[in-house]
Amino acid sequence: MCAYALTGNVSGSINPPVKGWIILAVMLSMLGGVDALAKNGPRPAPVMVGEVRERLMAPTEMVAGSVVSRLDAKVAAEMEGRLVWLAEVGDQVAKGAKLAQIDDVSRRLEVDEVRASLAQVTARLTFFEKELKRLSSLAKQNNAARTQLEQTESDRDVARADLTAAKARIKLAQDRVARSVLYAPFSGTVAQRLLQPGEWAESGAEVMRLVNTEQVEVRAMVPLSSLGFVTKGAALTVQVGDVKHDARVRSLVPVGDIQSRLMDLRLDIDSSPWPAGQSVRIAVPTAQAVKTLTVHRDAVVLRRSGSYLYRVTAENSAERVNISLGIASGDYIQVFGGLAAGDRVVTVGNERMRPGQQVSVKGGAAE
């Protein structure tokens, strides 16, 4: 009856009972396939795993800081005068390149004047030296007075001193001409004009700001309470959004500001992904580091009911382990629960995993 009912709407030359038996055979074959699938189970879920490890970790406090250039100077005029030329804002200059020009016409005229004075002194000295030779020859023949010879010697010595002074004045005049040009003390970028062409620059007046954008460091003011936990050469994590970078402590000024009670911290940061002026956050330790069990952050599954992870057993099945979280540092976080160092935990593929599910390990988390 069942076979015939299944074939009641089938038309053709084959007898209805025969068609019913054919369909029944197909259905039994399909049921056999389902039984085989239930017997073998679903395919193992592909996952990536990490290892539970012991690490030295310390509680940290996020402190605001900034990326600053180690070479940031306001270049000042060394001689007073009217500015006739300045480099443009944004110009990249090499060390020793010209940054600004102060009008030096009067100073060049001073050089010409002192050179003329030098020529006069040289001529007078030449005359006295020749006169001294003549008088010395006459004195040997008793034809010249001793006082006249001594007077000529004195005049010659004075001329020599005048010559030395004239040469020094030339160097001073040339130095003033040279100081009428402002040169870059280091390679960098012109960040700001503090004076404009045509304005008068006093000696010592700031003319422009030069910043080296390659040599940068991180600067922050940190609490005095961290003094005992931050040492020179220690690695700290610097973060901007989701981008993290390791930096090492270059210097720490162990003197707190009277009002803020904060001290100056400087970090060396190699190949900085951020420009000078970028605000950052720095993870500063607030207690001594201790050895503790940690896992990669990706291994932790956060839910309203609590936190857990999946440990991979020796039979490659997923075992759910409820955990409590502690301090975090970088990509790793402290965990409390039924874990031991060396346990394998799922880091990728754990969001929809079920306890007891078979897994196929495809790789490990990046350490």
Describe this structure in words.
The protein contains four helices and 23 strands. It is an alpha+beta fold and 367 residues long. The strands form five sheets. Strands 2-17-21-20-19-18 form a six-stranded antiparallel beta sheet, with no helix packed on it. Strands 3-12-15-14-13-16 form a six-stranded antiparallel barrel. A four-stranded antiparallel beta sheet has the order 4-11-9-6, with no helix packed on it. α3 packs antiparallel against α4. It is rod-shaped, with a radius of gyration of 44 Å. Mean pLDDT is 83; it is low at 1-14 and 33-38.
Q: What low-confidence regions span 5 or more consecutive residues with pLDDT below 50?
A: 1-14, 33-38
The biggest sheet amounts to: 6 strands, antiparallel
DSSP strand (E) fraction? Answer: 35-45%
> How do the strands of the widest beta sheet line up side by side?
2-17-21-20-19-18
Determine the N-to-C terminus distance: 67 Å
Q: Structurally, how many domains make up the residues?
A: 4
For the record, what CATH class of the largest domain applies?
A: Mainly Beta
What structural category arises from helix and sheet content?
Answer: alpha+beta
- What is the average of the pLDDT values? 83
The ordered H/E elements are HHEEEEEEEHHEEEEEEEEEEEEEEEE
Query: In the CATH hierarchy, what is the architecture of the largest domain at level 2?
Result: Beta Barrel
Continuous helix count: 4
* Strand segment count: 23
Instruction: State the fourth-level CATH superfamily of the largest domain.
Output: RNA polymerase II/Efflux pump adaptor protein, barrel-sandwich hybrid domain
